[in-house]
Automatic annotation (TrEMBL):
It comes from Carassius auratus (Goldfish). This is nitric-oxide synthase (NADPH). It comes from the Eukaryota. Keywords: Calmodulin-binding, FAD, Flavoprotein, FMN, Heme, Iron, Metal-binding, NADP, Oxidoreductase. PROSITE patterns: FLAVODOXIN_LIKE.
Length: 109
């Protein structure tokens, strides 16, 4: 059997919904990948250099603020943006946003 590609699924959440989604995503990915899921605050960003595939599942709250357990990870990513060593120069990445609002927009009425 061929060795499976590793996939790390990271989540940050205030309410638990992103954690639930990350766990579901991990179960799906386990069919084809060596997948694991963990909280962003438990992940050492130094390990990004050795990763093949990383998926980040996170929410925002308030005025677009990050969840508390994702703040350190986000700050570490921003530090990596040094012009000569930026993630953009070394890795291919995709960003996908899903937005589900529980707020009623009266302008649509």
């Amino acid at each position: 059997m061929a060795k499976r590609v590793k996939a790390t699924i990271l989540f940050a959440t205030e309410t638990g919904k992103s954690q639930d989604y990350a766990k579901t995503l991990c179960e799906i990915f386990k069919h084809a990948f060596d997948a694991k899921v963990m909280s962003m605050d438990e992940y050492d960003t130094v390990d990004l250099e050795r990763e093949t595939l990383v998926l980040a599942v996170t929410s925002t709250f308030g005025n677009g603020d990050p969840p508390e357990n994702g703040e350190k990870f986000g700050a570490a990513l921003m530090e990596m943006r040094h012009p000569t060593t930026s993630v953009e120069d070394r890795k291919t990445y995709k960003v996908r946003f899903n937005s589900v609002s529980s707020y009623s927009d009266t302008r649509k009425s």
